[in-house]
Write a structure and sequence with these properties.
Blueprint: E1 4-11, E2 23-28, E3 31-36, E4 44-47, E5 52-55, E6 57-62, H1 71-74, H2 79-95, E7 98-103, H3 109-116, E8 124-126, E9 131-133, E10 158-160, H4 164-176, E11 182-185, H5 204-216, E12 221-227, H6 228-235, E13 241-247, H7 250-259, E14 262-264, H8 267-280, H9 286-294, H10 297-307, E15 310-311, H11 327-332, H12 339-353, E16 371-374, H13 383-386, E17 392-395, E18 398-402
Parallel strand pairs: 1-4, 1-5, 6-7, 7-8, 9-10, 11-12, 12-13, 13-14, 14-15
Antiparallel strand pairs: 1-2, 2-3, 5-16, 16-17, 17-18
Helix pairs in contact: 4-5, 6-7, 8-9
């Protein structure tokens, strides 16, 4: 790979409060080799004329196989068909500046391997395989009138397991298939047909068994959780990453901070479903539950920030709604958070969540060369991020997108 020099860049490193003075970035073999006044034989030089360079964004709650907002309909689609959708969804996310995605249920070894082998351009992928649900939980997409078939229910995005021995075996199978983390459901959700939002899911012993298996592979468990009760239930049993968390309270926020758990808000998902979900086939039964959780998300972020919780960044979009991924920045900008804190959520905080500090989410010698370029000033105004997206995207050390091209 020919070395690449980004000349005259204002660099935000993913951690600090401001840009550097204009400097160069030398990229060699997919990593940042030098920062300063850089020279290299036979290097390609890209003069940025003072544009802002940020670490590539990380979306910590993405569903690559979620080609439809109607989950029961999605579950009837073959994975071979969904993989073609995934290629488009991943490529589009990369052009928006998301150079890394954490898949929260559905993506598998095949999709990850295709990306790693360069069969198509897309973000780095950290996948959870199928998320684990109890019978009648958020990941059980069967309707109330369906009789059990006598076999374990396995769908595209999730699978059902009950009891300590069964969830332990399921966790081991997911990890055997290469998953980077495990996803579970511990409260009701919007898109599932038979569980109210307030319903706690999995016993303490079941959650602890899954967490134990994850730790044996030196990884962690992420949990879909809306209510304060479910968050306390998850975190007290070792869960590291709380997804959504809209109904968080001060007690749950304090425990998250004490235990070092992360919160990953996904606010754009609710706005997008309210705006377009019905037209795209969101089941009528989901609408009251959507209303129940959608109004408290910004409040939860404020509670978490005041308690000292690490706050990540996610989107959780489905089907055609993926195009609204950058709008999470717009909604977060109304939360009272400073732009730089929101950008940290999407870079260095999410990198720490992924156990990739020093590799992703920052601009420093030795880090992986995933970068985004903006002509404006994202640290002053996030509209420069969500309005038009990046001017250029560098992924794995290569320029993969240029708006001018």
């Amino acid at each position: 790979m020919t070395p690449l020099i980004l000349r005259n860049a204002r660099i935000w490193d993913g951690r600090g409060d401001d840009y550097s003075s204009p400097a160069d970035i030398l990229i060699r073999d997919g990593r940042i080799a030098e920062i300063g006044r850089c020279r290299a034989s036979y290097a390609e030089v890209l003069d940025l004329a003072g544009a802002a360079v940020l670490p590539g964004f990380i979306d910590a709650h993405f569903h690559a196989y979620a080609a439809d907002v109607n989950i029961p309909r999605l579950e009837r689609m073959p994975v071979s068909y969904l993989a073609h959708h995934a290629r488009i969804l991943l490529g589009d996310a990369l052009k928006r500046g998301f150079t890394t995605l954490r898949d929260a249920g559905g993506a598998d070894w095949g999709l990850w391997s295709a990306l790693e082998e360069g069969l198509f351009d897309g973000p780095r992928l950290f996948y959870a395989g199928r998320a684990i649900s109890q019978t009648g939980g958020h990941g059980d997409s069967r309707s109330a009138f369906e009789d059990p078939c006598g076999c374990r229910h396995k769908a595209v995005l999730s699978e059902v397991a009950d009891g300590v021995d069964e969830v332990r075996r399921t966790a081991r199978e997911i990890l055997r298939r290469g998953a980077h983390q495990i996803k579970i459901f511990v409260s009701g959700g919007v898109s599932s047909p038979t569980d109210p939002i307030w319903m706690p899911q999995f016993s303490a012993a079941e959650i602890a068994a899954i967490v134990e298996e994850a730790r044996s592979r030196r990884t962690y468990v992420m949990a879909h959780a809306y209510t304060a009760e479910s968050i306390l239930h998850a975190v007290s049993n070792g869960v590291r990453s709380i997804e959504h968390g809209n109904l968080l309270d001060e007690t749950a926020a304090a425990m998250m901070a004490q235990e070092g758990a992360f919160l990953v808000p996904t606010l754009i998902a609710y706005e997008a479903l309210r705006d377009e979900g019905a037209a795209l086939g969101l089941p009528d039964a989901a609408l009251p539950k959507l209303q129940e959780v959608s109004e408290r998300g910004l409040e939860a972020i404020g509670l978490a920030r005041r308690a000292g919780v690490d706050i990540g960044f996610g989107s959780d979009l489905l089907g055609a709604l993926h195009r609204r991924q950058l709008e999470e920045f717009r909604i977060r900008a109304t939360s009272g958070e400073a732009p730089v804190d929101i950008l940290r959520s999407a870079t260095s905080v999410n990198a720490r969540l992924l156990n990739m500090t020093g590799q992703l989410g920052e601009i420093a010698p030795g880090a992986l060369a995933d970068l985004v370029v903006f002509p404006g000033d994202p640290l002053a105004d996030l509209a420069d991020v969500y309005r038009d997206g990046p001017d250029r995207v560098i992924s794995r050390g290569r320029l993969v997108y240029s708006r001018a091209a």
